[in-house]
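Review form for a predicted model. The reviewer records the input and the model, then writes brief findings.
Reviewer: anonymous (R2)
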Amino acid sequence: MVSPSQRYGWMFTAGRLGLFLICAALLYVLGFRSILLLLGALILSVPLSFVLLRPIRLRWSSEIEQNLARRREAKDKLRSALRGDE
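Model under review:
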């Protein structure tokens, strides 16, 4: 089973790759070839992904923060149980 955090990670990665491929196809149609095609697609896709994939990135970071908080709480409970503070 895939956790929500992993799902958002895969969605973000697929989105970045998709944007890169779309930019590369657009540049190919415009006549770019070779290393210029790859560099141009990279330069275009990074700021586009920063703007277009922001909702996914925010949900992903929120999910990671929640996971960390749960782990921290479980760790504190375990430590207090081992000390006999309960």
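Findings: The longest helix spans residues 54-83.
Further findings: DSSP finds three helices and no strands in the chain.
Recommendation: see findings above.
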